[in-house]
Write a structure and sequence with these properties.
about 0% strand; about 75% helix; mainly alpha; TetR_C (chains A, B); transcription (chains A, B); homodimer; DNA-binding; Arc Repressor Mutant, subunit A; disordered N terminus
DNA sequence: ATGCTAACGCAACGATGAGTGCGATAATTT
DNA sequence: AAATTATCGCACTCATCGTTGCGTTAGCAT
């Protein structure tokens, strides 16, 4: 949760923003998609609907903002010394994060809100994966293409989360790393 | 488009159903997500809103119905004689289908409508992939696990379609088959 | 400590989505 | 061919979303 560091004491705007973000996450997790409306968010956040309308404008923009905040900086890029170790550790963390039903609900709502929704959920993950590969390249090791890594790691992981009902265990996610590095 | 075979002459219900389905696809492709409302769908379909409310109840159920219809039976399972040939041909067809922006818009809306939305988009694809593998097994050939095939074929394909902005070309999709069969 | 500015709350309004009872129509069955 | 039944259209009502103007408050700077 990034809200604690964003809600700096003394800033009302930051406080309101944090409350609204939290309300969006809770509502997305609780009810069906059509209940995620601006008046409902405002009521749950203890804020007047006008404020939300003025600062975010629409549910789509609000969801994009919440998603980019929620899906950035919540997973730390490890530095275990080896590419395999970094990837396994990182994939396990991402899979654990994706195991939370509330996170999935937020992702689904964001995807449904517009064409850019999906990118908002995974843009930071792309950067993190690129950073891991770049670091190994700096070490002098042989590295896979970033595109290929995205396909074989993030692809199955997010596919299971969204399309297949079955849960993506942390162990299984780490197993994908072996398949990538073997090819 | 499956509408032509569903709109059998003489059946008013089927005609209405086809018109509503078509309207949903068009509206999902055209405007933002919040414009996909039941009165709008009814108006575009030339049908009274009451009819849509009574037959489908909510936008989520309507989207699930449209998605299962649209994503079933639109790709024929090939029979080229070999597993690699079948998979390459089938992946190319699926990728071509996913290249249509309208199809993507419908998928996004369906995913956002509820937890079951994603499954409605890929359930038929799972069955088709299972059928291809089963047939090869009947031929006596060595086959990969269905789970593994889903991870390495459908995973990257649908991830690119939803999360990554980049288009999934038909050639690239066929290339995934080689990676699967090599492992 | 005091003035300034940006953000928020409030109260109203219009627009539109959601739901209901009833009559009419088309498709099916005997 | 006539009766039956499921389905649809229509008129009406209620709830609520989206928006605007104005006053107030909190945060910030001198």
């Amino acid at each position: 949760m990034t809200e604690t560091i964003q809600a700096r004491p003394g800033g009302r705007s930051a406080r309101v923003r944090a409350a609204v973000h939290r309300a969006v996450e809770e509502l997305a997790a609780a009810g069906p998609a059509e209940t995620l409306t601006i008046p409902a968010v405002a009521a749950r956040a203890g804020v007047h609907p006008t404020t939300v309308y003025r600062r975010w404008g629409s549910v789509a923009q609000l969801l994009a903002d919440v998603a980019t905040s929620r899906f950035s900086g919540d997973v730390v890029v490890p530095d275990s010394g080896s590419l395999a170790g970094d990837l396994e550790r990182w994939m396990g963390d991402v899979a654990t994060d994706l195991a939370d039903p509330d996170v999935l609900a937020l992702m689904r709502a964001t995807i449904g809100s517009g064409p850019e929704g999906g990118c908002a959920c995974t843009a930071d993950r792309h950067e993190q994966l690129g950073a891991i590969i770049e670091r190994e390249k700096a070490r002098g090791g042989r590295v896979p293409e970033l595109e290929r890594a995205v396909d074989m790691l993030l692809g199955p992981l997010y596919y299971r989360a969204i399309f297949s009902g079955r849960p993506a265990s942390s162990d299984w996610a780490r197993g994908l790393v072996a398949a990538l590095l073997a090819g």
